[in-house]
Amino acid sequence: MVKKPRIMVIGSFMIDLVVRTPRAPKSGETVIGSSFNRFLGGKGANQAVAAARLGASVTMAGKLGKDFFGDEMLVALEEEGISVGHVLRDASASTGIGSITLDDGGDNRIVVVPGANLRFNLADLATLEPVMASHDLLMLQLEMDIETVKEAVKMGSKHGVPVVLNPAPARELEDDLLATVTYLTPNETEAELLTGVPVRDLQSAKRAAAVLLDRGPKNVIITLGEKGALLASGDSFIHVDGFSVQPVDTVAAGDAFNGALATQVSCGFPLEEAVQYANAVGALTVTRQGAIPSLPTEQEVEEFLGKMTRRRAHA
Prior knowledge:
47% of the residues are buried. This protein has a single domain, classed as Ribokinase (UDP-N-acetylmuramoyl-L-alanine:D-glutamate ligase), CATH 3.40.1190. It starts with 5 loop residues before the first strand and ends with a helix. Strands 5-4-1-8-9-10-11-12-13 form a nine-stranded mixed β-sheet, sandwiched between helices. Strands 3-2-6-7 form a four-stranded mixed β-sheet. The chain has helices at 43-53, 68-79, 122-126, 129-132, 146-158, 175-178, 188-195, 202-214, 253-266, 271-285, 298-313, and strands spanning 6-10, 14-21, 35-41, 57-65, 83-90, 97-103, 108-113, 137-140, 163-165, 183-184, 219-223, 229-233, 236-240. The chain is built from eleven helices and 13 strands. Helix 7 (188-195) packs across helix 8 and helix 9 runs antiparallel to helix 10 (271-285). By secondary structure, it is α/β, with parallel strands linked by helices.
């Protein structure tokens, strides 16, 4: 780590209720699952913890319910060294819940009940402006009120703070929002929804990235799973290879990627190197179960990269 970057994450908190089953049920069908677990997660919290474990100084903002799950989340974030002074509580809404069915192939199906996450509003956001300017980067996702997300992006731009926007869950976005984003990080599904270009391979990913660049973001990084990521900036399109691993659970892989990307670019690493590092973090994450529990430390990533380098050298 060259320096300890300061990253502000405005985002969601979720408690993931995970059922593992040999295969997902069809409509109207009941199948017998093999296990049940409860994990702390949410795209905002996942990305905050990912960045913190990779060496960043992280400030988290958002809203929890005044319930047991909210208490549990706050304790967990504090244990990660994350500043939670801007995490608010709402007595009239529950902490967000995610219901996840995970099959033996590592694929997941998710139903989200946002709860208090959607109660974080423009008035709450306004209280962050005095501290936002002191951060090196702002990271956002779409599990919150969209008007609040739009205003947060504008606020970051106003103060010269680079913005990473992970457009997930997938939804259409306006050009004026995209035009103020420094790093837009959709996966294949999200890129297709934003552009209308079906992303099936590297060439179609390039077409989608070109459409997105025309809509205004400075950099577009389309994540491609084990195939890595496509980095698009200006007239340049660079495919950054991924890492082949045996997936156990794909939950939080994208969040791990985003937390790693934010940390690396905040440290001043070239964007291609930052994407390569983020690919490694995402790959390592899918080899473990759960959301926050699966997120690796800086040392674990360095060990993983060393192992992958040796394996490729002997291939």
